[in-house]
Amino acid sequence: MELFDLKSATLEELQTFFAQIGQKPFRAKQVYEWMHKKQAVSIDEMTNLSKELREQLKQECTYTVLKKVQVQVSKLDGTRKYLFGLADGNVIESVLMRYKHGNSVCISSQVGCRMGCRFCASTIDGLVRNLTSGEMLEQIYRIGEDIDERISNVVVMGSGEPLDNYDNLVKFITMLTDANGLNISQRNLTVSTCGLVPQIRELATHQFQMTLALSLHASSQEKRRELMPVANKYDLKDVLEACDDYFEKTGRRITFEYSLVGGVNDTDEDVEQLVRLLHGKNCHINLIPVNPIKERDFVQSSRPVVEEFQKKLQTHGITATVRREMGRDIDGACGQLRRRYMEEA
After folding, report:
1. Among this protein's residues, is 334 annotated catalytic?
2. Of 12, 33, 93, 283, catalytic
3. Contact, 246 vs 212, CB < 8 A?
4. DSSP for 130-146?
5. Nearest C-alpha neighbor of 225 from the set 213, 212, 239
6. Residues in Cβ contact with 217 at an 8 Å cutoff, skipping those fewer than 6 apart
7. Beta-carbon count within 10 A of 279 CB
8. Whole-prediction pTM
9. Residue 61 among the catalytic residues
10. pLDDT per residue over 45-101, tens digit each?
11. Which among 106, 113, 283, 334 is annotated as catalytic?
């Protein structure tokens, strides 16, 4: 018999399950709040359930709780990078970043990744599996427990391509923003994608009020194809049209992530192509000095080049900011900590 995944069930799914096992609907809400408001680490903590019901749940269900394997703390800015163990022995990364406006957590959506972006450590060993919605939520819960502070912002921008795990992502968003759980505002959520066109269009139909961040990283289809294999499947023109569709349906402007790689995509020609590409779009460009990884020979653009790139974009009326680099002294880039841990293991 397949066990029921309690932590990954919406309240409605939980109510259906409890009806099937002969329990009253209010029990489902009790359990849901224990998991997502009180963030109980075991079924035994649910003291307003009878001992018999707790034992039944332990027999018929799985209860996802991530194990903290390793934590790195930056001496530079207090950023904390977590390595969490999953029930099947896999490990994933999450990051806590502290800002004046609150605590932000960057979570993973998959174990590994199959997108193959050339500058990313997450994808080097390929995709192992998708994370369940419960495993995605648990990253936030365990970090909140570790620092004993509220998490106010969530970014799905760690290891994995969120839209490649589409159904679990949508369920995660629904549960994260549910008033019966953490109740984080959709406006405080950002989901990143390398540009899976059908899924962007499908996501737009939900009309979530979150921010969609497109990993652009190149000013042309040709250059994007060199850096991101996904460009072999989806033309940049089609990706941008899907982003326009997302903006039209949700009213939420797109953020374009642009990793600056020295001598590769940081030239004057790149600026000119970007201006032509994004002219007239309601968008924001997030410039990211690439985080070097030992498996690749990419280098960061110099500070003067980054500042000049930003200045030229703004001169042409395109809002552009340079992402503040955080956690540079603690395996800051996506996938670095997990990969080092696996090599040592």
Report:
1. yes
2. 93
3. yes
4. EPPHHHHHHHHHHHHHH
5. 239
6. 117, 119, 224, 227, 228, 257, 258, 259, 265
7. 10
8. 0.93
9. no
10. 999 999 999 999 999 999 999 999 999 999 988 899 999 999 999 999 999 999 888
11. 334
